[in-house]
Amino acid sequence: MDIYKHDYPKAKIAISACAAAVVLARAASAQTAALDIISTLSGVQALMMHIGPLLSAILFTLSGLLYAVGQLFPSHQRANFHTIASDMIMGAVVVGVLSVAANGFAIASTHLLSNSTANLS
User: Can you give the pLDDT at residue 58?
Assistant: First the structure.
């Protein structure tokens, strides 16, 4: 018995109604999100200021552990561990810099958005 030969009109109607509801909900949330960019940037800035230093410290700690564990292996595996550790250190530095500069980035982008929306009016 081939299941594709059957026509399920009620299921099609239900799926169409769900898809229409999702499309309408996304359109409504897109309008409110477009109007609320400044508060979204403030939320991202607050998140980076709280989580950024912690994530940076975790990355530094894990990279030190990987470097130490890499010393226990032969040279070709040690190189892999050292590469991963140095990449994690670079990531920790980037996250640390971004978390420190998040306040400045948020202020600059808020001024830029305020000026660009004021020019549109």
Answer: 92
Q: Interior CA angle at 93 toward 104 and 113, to 5°? A: 25
- CA angle, 7 then 9 then 13, to 5°: 145
Is 24 inside a domain boundary?
no
Tally of structural domains, the chain: 1
Distance in angstroms between the alpha carbons of the first and the last residue of the chain:
63
Give the count of alpha carbons within 13 A of 5, CB side only.
2
Residue 14's identity, in one-letter code, is A
The per-residue pLDDT for range 45-54, each reduced to its tens digit, is 777 778 888 8
Angstrom distance (rounded) from CA 118 to CA 48: 28
Residues of the chain predicted below pLDDT 70: 1-35, 116-121
Q: 3-class SS at 4?
A: helix
Which residues touch 67 (CB under 8 Å, ≥6 apart)? Answer: 81, 82, 85
Helical H segments across the chain, by residue range: 9-35, 37-70, 75-120
Residue 81, in any domain of the structure: yes
